[in-house]
């Protein structure tokens, strides 16, 4: 999770406008407490609130290509960034951030690079050479993104609606798997898997393939330089995730630095059945530590905070909750 805000083509380039954009970006501070950054170029602003996951020491954003003509602000994790860097051999990387690869891929391949990314992301990229910009959101919309239009013709993008709603004349939820290009002035789908148009899936059911894909999906998400935990509900999905993590934790960078105890978290009431399931799960997870919050009042306070955080995003709650990432 990080927070991004980009405002492109504002008519007012005064210091007051810049301060306003910084103030709006602060509305996303809860998404990234580790760093706040802004880059402005003429009438364009790219701001970032960072939750540092990969390269916490030098990966602050916005990020750039070598001569800083391409600027990006990204919320996301690019799981195949090492592989992509290897393809971009002549390029010089300034940071160890997984997201810097986006600026160099754009330099190398233009707007068509987005389907090379394996990850969850939403980003805005500004090419200062011709003042064009693109914005994109991952295949299924794990990372949130909203797009708005100001009365002065400016185009806005933000991780949360609360940074757009007071300053834009209208705004939309940016569709998952799409790319906006200022050159064409429209949205187009970049994610076009072969099965997309099938109404009934034609691939035969293959449980081993499902297991293998599930394990791979969990393992690639262990790409972090900071300690992490697993949130347990007591149900099947989170238990399966925890069991795959516990089996592969020892191989990770994090375990080498922080030890290979798996931290798990659970929030809820002490319902005997759930406690029984959690206890059973913990006996199967080697070296795990459980943090259980069961105080009703604290849980309610957290819900209150969550509603305030998601303010104006709750019209379709089930759709919006995963978008907190
Ligand atoms: N967390 C993010 O969304 C950005 C980037 N992956 C970082 O670790 O800084």
Automatic annotation (TrEMBL):
A biological process term (GO) from this entry: asparagine biosynthetic process
Keyword entries, A-Z: ATP-binding, Ligase, Nucleotide-binding
Segments forming domain Glutamine amidotransferase type-2: 2-185
Record has Ligase as a keyword: yes
Single Gene Ontology MF annotation: asparagine synthase (glutamine-hydrolyzing) activity
Gene Ontology terms: cellular component: cytosol
Cited InterPro entries: Asn_synthase, Asn_Synthetase, AsnB_N, GATase_2_dom, Ntn_hydrolases_N, Rossmann-like_a/b/a_fold
Signal listed as a keyword: no
Protein's UniProt name: Glutamine amidotransferase type-2 domain-containing protein
């Amino acid at each position: 999770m990080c927070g991004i805000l980009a405002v492109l083509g504002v008519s007012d380039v005064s210091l007051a406008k810049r301060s306003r954009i910084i103030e709006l970006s602060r509305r996303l501070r809860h998404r990234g407490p580790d760093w706040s950054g802004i880059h402005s170029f003429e009438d364009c602003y790219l701001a970032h609130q960072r939750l540092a996951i990969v390269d916490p020491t030098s990966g602050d954003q916005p990020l750039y290509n070598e001569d800083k003509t391409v600027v990006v602000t990204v919320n996301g994790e690019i799981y195949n960034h090492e592989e992509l860097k290897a393809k971009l051999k002549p390029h010089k990387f300034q940071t160890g951030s997984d997201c810097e690869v986006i600026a160099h891929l754009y330099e190398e391949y233009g707007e068509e690079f987005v389907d090379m990314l394996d990850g969850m992301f939403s980003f805005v990229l500004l090419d200062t050479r011709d003042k064009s910009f693109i914005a994109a959101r991952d295949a299924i919309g794990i990372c949130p993104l909203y797009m708005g239009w100001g009365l002065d013709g400016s185009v806005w993008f933000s991780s949360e609606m609360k940074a757009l709603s007071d300053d834009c004349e209208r705004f939309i939820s940016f569709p998952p798997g799409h790319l906006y290009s200022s050159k064409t002035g429209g949205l187009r789908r970049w994610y076009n898997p072969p099965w997309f148009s099938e109404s009934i899936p034609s691939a035969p059911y293959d449980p081993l393939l499902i297991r293998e894909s599930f394990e791979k999906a969990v393992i690639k998400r262990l790409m972090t330089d900071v300690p992490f935990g697993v949130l347990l509900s007591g149900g099947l999905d989170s238990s399966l995730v925890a069991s795959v993590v516990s089996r592969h934790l020892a191989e990770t960078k994090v375990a080498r630095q922080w030890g290979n105890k798996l931290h798990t978290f659970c929030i809820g009431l002490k319902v005997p059945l759930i406690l029984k399931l959690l206890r059973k799960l913990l006996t199967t997870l080697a070296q795990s530590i459980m943090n259980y919050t069961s105080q009703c009042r604290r849980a309610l306070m957290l819900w209150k905070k969550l509603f305030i955080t998601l303010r104006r995003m709750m019209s379709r709650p089930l759709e919006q909750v995963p978008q907190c990432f």
